[in-house]
Design a protein that fits this description.
Layout: H1 3-6, H2 21-26, E1 37-44, E2 50-52, E3 60-62, H3 64-76, E4 81-87, H4 104-115, E5 120-125, E6 138-142, E7 145-149, H5 150-167, E8 171-174, H6 181-191, E9 200-205, H7 212-217, H8 238-250, E10 254-258, H9 264-274, E11 278-282, H10 284-295, H11 301-315, E12 319-322, H12 325-336
Parallel strand pairs: 1-3, 1-4, 1-12, 4-5, 5-8, 9-10, 10-11, 11-12
Antiparallel strand pairs: 2-3, 6-7
Helix pairs in contact: 3-4, 4-5, 5-6, 8-9, 9-11
This protein binds ligand PBG.
């Protein structure tokens, strides 16, 4: 058709599609799906224990029996995976309980895999909850002050990951941010015959004030100093991409960006640059802010939660780690009706 012929047709203004909810869904570019959700859970020894975390309404430290209930009800509404954090009975300077065969996480994994075999059980691999000083690695204190000992920490992280996988964890997720931990964990898993256990690396994990409520939940606040020597600086995006590249080279199967909402640019770039399965962790502070504002009647909890998660999906997240996972799964079911 030549230009003259085209000119015979009226030209309409481009316009947005309007109309019914069904039409809006038909043309939606991004979707939320319960299959993308991961629910973080906190487990500690005891029975019938549901210890509320004050700064995170709806989140509890759970004894294994209660953990099972919580996991079952989340799984029933469609949440496919949980991410386990342990609170040990004893903390020491070598994080012994982190890699004890009968540690709290190892026991919880065995219980969950036995009772709920179709639930994916992911374990957070870190030492801070198990260390008396609350740091993610071994600490040396000498004339120069206290320092984190990167390389000696790798052995303990690898032992933890192997013990989780031996207990039946489907996926291990190192969150410590020591250099070389993914390679150390991959090597140790392979050597233990656990070559099919994938690694979800907290690859771009920033030193963030948004972790505040978590440290109450996991009782893991550092007793001195902060985590800035091993977690990333909020000023640096290029460095975050380098960290992700390193973790991938070391054998990470899934990479994570954390926190989520304040780091959407990082998430977008990580997904665009590497095209790897990418997880976004909507951390404790993000959850608490929504809960607090909603409790005051200042925002609509459901709408804000869904809108925030949609932003993570738009930015490129395949996997959404959120304390609101069971609510979200329920809301999605209601929306589909
Ligand atoms: C352990 C760890 C932390 C989080 C996940 N794993 C805390 C931290 O690094 O201080 C934070 C999760 C959250 O805030 O929801 N290293």
């Amino acid at each position: 058709m030549n230009a003259g012929a085209l000119g015979q047709f009226p030209v309409y203004r481009p316009r947005r599609l309007r109309g019914s909810a069904a039409l809006r869904r038909l043309v939606a570019e991004t979707r939320l799906n319960a299959e993308q959700l991961v629910l973080p859970l906190f487990v500690r020894a005891g029975r019938k224990l549901r210890q509320p975390v004050a700064s995170m309404p709806g989140v509890f430290q759970l004894s294994p029996d209660e953990l099972l209930k919580e996991a079952r009800s989340a799984h029933q509404v469609g949440v496919p995976a949980v991410l386990l954090f342990g609170i040990p009975e004893r903390k020491d300077e070598r994080a012994s309980e982190a890699y004890a065969a009968n540690g709290i996480v190892q026991r919880a994994v065995r219980l969950l895999k036995k009772e709920l075999p179709s639930l994916l059980v992911i374990t957070d691999v870190c030492l801070c909850e198990y260390m008396s000083h609350g740091h993610c690695g071994l600490v040396a204190a000498d004339r120069r002050g206290a320092r984190i000992l990167n390389d000696p920490t790798l052995k303990l992280l690898a032992r933890s990951a192997v013990s989780h996988a031996e207990a039946g964890a489907d996926l291990v997720a190192p969150s410590d941010m020591m250099d070389g931990r993914v390679a150390a964990i991959r090597t140790a898993l392979d050597k233990a015959g656990l070559d099919e256990t994938p690694i979800m690396a907290y690859a771009a994990k920033f030193a963030s004030a948004f972790y505040g409520p978590f440290r109450e939940a996991a009782e893991s606040a550092p007793k001195f100093g902060d985590r800035r020597s091993y977690q990333m600086a909020a000023t640096n995006a290029q460095e975050a991409l380098r960290e992700v590249a390193l973790d991938i080279r070391e054998g990470a199967d899934i990479v994570m960006v954390k926190p989520a909402l304040a780091y959407l640019d990082i998430l977008y770039r990580v997904k665009a640059e590497f095209g790897y399965p990418t997880a976004a962790y909507a951390v404790s502070g993000e959850y608490s802010m929504i809960k607090a504002a909603a409790a005051n009647g200042w925002i609509d909890e459901r709408a804000v939660t869904m809108e925030s998660l949609l932003a993570l999906r738009r930015a490129g997240a395949d996997i959404l780690i959120t304390y609101a996972a069971p609510d979200v799964a329920r809301w999605l079911k209601e929306d589909a009706r």
